[in-house]
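Pasting as-is:
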Amino acid sequence: MIIAIIVVVVLVLIVATIAGMYNALVSLNERVDEAWSDITVQLKYRADLIPNVVETVKGYAKHEKETFQMVTEARSAVMGAKTVKQAAAAEKEMQGALGRIFAIAEAYPELKANANFVKLQEQLQDVEDKIQAARRFYNAGAKELNTKIKTFPSNIVNNMFGHFKKRDYFEVEESEKAKIAKAPEVKF
């Protein structure tokens, strides 16, 4: 009788441990999904601001068609990104395109003083800050989930159920960060 009680207690402890690990993985997975959703909301908001920036700059720099086309293509790539890798690649394009737009603006003092342009710059800076915060939150969740998936004993639970997959980090490659940090040179 005592042996049966011990076996039952051990089985209950094993099931409770497995359930706890599984639930922890579910929670982490949901947190990463939520963080990804936050990123996509901010990217969409920024993408919605871009046409206003382009139209404002177009009024002053009509001959910069190539730059405007680059911004439009980058915006489309961001809006069409379905995976973290696609979004990160589109982000690189967008950062470069926005860098060129603001480099153009530097050449036009009256544009830099335009109230609409200044307001758009402030809104873009605000959304860029929010995107950075959302990326950090997403990457922290992805790191925690990836670690949990790989470490013992939760890796055994994950292998039993197979629901949870490693998440990619949302990051810009070091070579791209250097390009973004230095605004492109614009010559007239």
